[in-house]
Amino acid sequence: SIERIKVGSVKRTKKEYEAYLREDIAQRRKVEQMKAEGAEEGDIKKQMEVLNDTLTVLPDTRQRLQKYSRELAEFMARSFPDEPPAEEEELRALVLEGRQLVKDTSEMLGESLVDESEACETSNNGMPVDEF
Fold first, then answer.
1. Residue 122, beta-bridge partner list
2. Closest by alpha carbon to 105, among 10, 1, 6?
3. Judging by beta carbons within 10 Å of its beta carbon (0-12, 13-18, 19+), is residue 67 exposed, middle or buried?
4. Above 80 in pLDDT, residue 101?
5. 56 pLDDT tier (thresholds 50, 70, 90)
6. Labelling 8: which of 33, 37, 74, 120 has CA 20 to 30 A away?
């Protein structure tokens, strides 16, 4: 199903981004440790190259995570404005997981990934309903 694909894309990319963030921290520590221990300049340089490789992929991974999360948020707002009924257990669990992923990713990236106007209620003709 399309919702399963979208949730899976965000889940995988989030996991990948978190792994690169951990790798970044680990590589920085290793470089600092090597410098503190007086390691050879060539060894430190090689370790800096490993760190730079990680730093190169982080922005791309972050962009993909933003893109996939935004697409998931928009899809969820459009396709599932209400929670699916309890009888549809699998779909309900997937929708709840998708919403949680969007929330977690928004917090991780420090930005709102869902347009507030899309999150408001809509009438039958698709126009936003004013709430007073």
1. 128
2. 10
3. middle
4. yes
5. very high
6. 120
Which of 20-59 are b and which e, b meaning 16 or more Cβ less than 10 Å from the residue's Cβ? beebeeebeebbeebeeeeeeeeebeebeeebeebeeeee
Residue with tokens 């996939």: 68
- For residue 128, the cross-strand partners are 122
Can you tell me the distance from the alpha carbon of 30 to that of 36, in angstroms, rounded to the nearest whole number?
10
| 106 contacts: CB under 8 Å, gap ≥ 6 | 69, 112, 113, 114
Residue 68 CB partners (closer than 8 Å, separation 6+): 6, 9, 10, 13
Instruction: Select from 118, 33, 102 the least CA-distant residue to 66.
Output: 102
Q: How far is CA 5 from CA 12, 83, 126, 131, in A?
A: 10, 19, 25, 34
Going from the C-alpha of 85 to that of each of 30, 90, 95, 99, 126, the distances in angstroms are: 51, 10, 11, 16, 22
Q: Which segments within the chain are labelled E, that is strand? A: none
pLDDT, residue 87, reads 87
Q: Which residue's structure tokens are 């962009």?
A: 63
